[in-house]
Amino acid sequence: MTALKNDRFLRALLKQPVDVTPVWMMRQAGRYLPEYRATRAKAGDFMSLCMNPELACEVTLQPLERYPLDAAILFSDILTVPDAMGLGLYFETGEGPRFKKVVRSLADIEALPIPDPEKDLGYVMDAVRTIRRELNGRVPLIGFSGSPWTLATYMVEGGSSKDFRKSKAMLYENPQAMHALLDKLAQSVTSYLNGQIKAGAQAVQIFDSWGGSLSAAAYQEFSLAYMKKIVDGLIREHDGRQIPVILFTKGGGLWLESMAEAGAEALGLDWTCDIGNARARVGDKVALQGNMDPSVLYAKPDAIRAEVGRILAAYGQGTGHVFNLGHGITPEVDPAHAGAFIEAVHELSAQYHR
């Protein structure tokens, strides 16, 4: 494989020295970019874009043409796995993702197949291979999946939910069924991420978008335990390089110590955590990724720069920090503000790496 021209993102995840703090943005390929909207219109709809490797590659690379980002992230969706399990994913205008079939009983769960990455999710693997080829060593490529708990909520609710009523009812009323579903999802996600790694992903992130909706006890049993199972089953070296793993639980700031024991190289932080406090709590166990409030990007460049400076100072000297937003960039952000953010990270962080 082609040698990496810029590997500071991977080096920071492994707590190796870097010249400046690396930066990327969750949802960096997305609706805030006019070129993304044009490609999506060409594809016809969101899933058609995801399932076309050439167009998925095109939108993955678009932010890198605009900004000096330190990583690319595969353009896909967390719900490709439940879709490949036969639930029939579709998108309702204004309502987000929906499934034609829902999972409500042990019989429903037992009927679910574990998808084969190349056969059932081949379009994702083809996208990874295409992106790696087109990147040509420019920056590393991040692969990703949703966490078992997050995927389970969509499968049980039938789509997005504000209160996770049905998922939590199953968790408390029928924990055996929920554990069976989460175990099947952990196997599926492990296989899916290993497929991405074999296809060329150089780091992987597990998005636990809804782990923060759980109680402390339920989080440990029904979310973190299954993410740990995935981490234990992942390919950790490929093409002569270590493959770092990032765990990101939105709303997980209360549980950083136990997350740091899960075996991943890095933890993603949302914006409700102080990164200096988080670093003190986890010590040298893991690198940290984050964690500017995405809404800061609505402010003027001077205010963005000031907040970047504050977060860098809170983390302090040394490596082990990947700068990111605390959640995905939102569609209404001015692309010039995203550019000011990335520029500020590189410019202001050099003093912390001398």
Strand content: 5-15%
The major sheet is characterized as:
7 strands, parallel
In the CATH classification, which architecture applies?
Answer: Alpha-Beta Barrel
Highest-level CATH class = Alpha Beta
Q: What is the oligomer described by this structure?
A: single chain
Helix content: 40-55%
Domains (count): 1
Detailed description of the structure:
This protein has 354 residues and is α/β, with parallel strands linked by helices. The longest helix is centred in the middle third of the chain and has 25 residues, at 175-199. It is built from 16 helices and 11 strands. Helix content is 48%, strand content 13%. Helix 10 packs across helix 11. The strands form 3 sheets. A 7-stranded parallel β-sheet has the order 1-4-5-8-9-10-11. The chain has helices at residues 8-13, 34-43, 46-50, 53-66, 80-87, 106-110, 117-120, 122-135, 148-157, 165-173, 175-199, 216-233, 256-260, 275-282, 301-315, 335-349; strands at residues 72-73, 89-92, 96-99, 141-146, 203-208, 237-238, 241-242, 245-249, 266-268, 287-292, 321-325. The two termini are 31 Å apart. It has one domain (8-353): TIM Barrel.
Can you lay out the helices and strands and say which pair or pack?
Blueprint: H1 8-13, H2 34-43, H3 46-50, H4 53-66, E1 72-73, H5 80-87, E2 89-92, E3 96-99, H6 106-110, H7 117-120, H8 122-135, E4 141-146, H9 148-157, H10 165-173, H11 175-199, E5 203-208, H12 216-233, E6 237-238, E7 241-242, E8 245-249, H13 256-260, E9 266-268, H14 275-282, E10 287-292, H15 301-315, E11 321-325, H16 335-349
Helix pairs in contact: 2-4, 4-8, 9-10, 9-11, 10-11, 11-12, 14-15, 15-16
